[in-house]
């Protein structure tokens, strides 16, 4: 089982700052749906540190689901559900759940824009008024990269797949508002990343 575990080194650096950035914006109890959980390392760490929440990981990739199950198995936490196959860009794969919060870390720049559109459409249909959709990752602001390292990362992403790339925060916020979310709360994070909290309008 353990050989299916993937390890994303960045998770060890960003998980504690991510926890502190999210904590004030998440409910103390309820169901959190995580989109694009990847290795599952954030799911295990955050579920352990936010024990009032029930964590529902997901990803569109079957190998990621195996890794999440493996990390979950080792952690043996009572508040993580088995991962779901969920492609943010495919409305047929969105579950019939009523989460109290949704989290999506480091996906929207490593997926086509359609995944961002699907993320907001799906989140808007599941979340109740006032509930948060929290994103984490690098962003451009007013069309500009905020650091040379983000510009280089963006060029690398686009070389790997022209449909990928660091997104404009304003473009993402425009999609969000179009789906009934309020303008975001923005938390500056280490390594030129942002945590961005969109709340479904009341
Ligand atoms: C860079 S990894 C981030 C994983 C994890 N959130 C983290 O920060 O370590 C990107 C993840 O997004 C997932 N992904 C890409 N497109 C997706 C989509 N349309 N719907 C759901 N997950 C997607 C990939 O399978 C991958 O696990």
TrEMBL record:
Q: Name one Pfam family in it.
A: DUF938
Give the molecular function GO annotations. Answer: methyltransferase activity
InterPro entries given in the database record: DUF938, SAM-dependent_MTases_sf
Q: Among its keywords, does the record have Transferase? A: yes
SUPFAM superfamilies in the record: S-adenosyl-L-methionine-dependent methyltransferases
According to the UniProt entry, the coiled-coil residues are: none
The keyword Methyltransferase appears for this protein = yes
* Entry keywords, A to Z: Methyltransferase, Transferase
Q: Which CDD domains does this UniProt record tie to the protein?
A: AdoMet_MTases
Listed under GO biological process in this entry are: methylation
Name of the featured protein: SAM-dependent methyltransferase
UniProt source species: Niveispirillum lacus
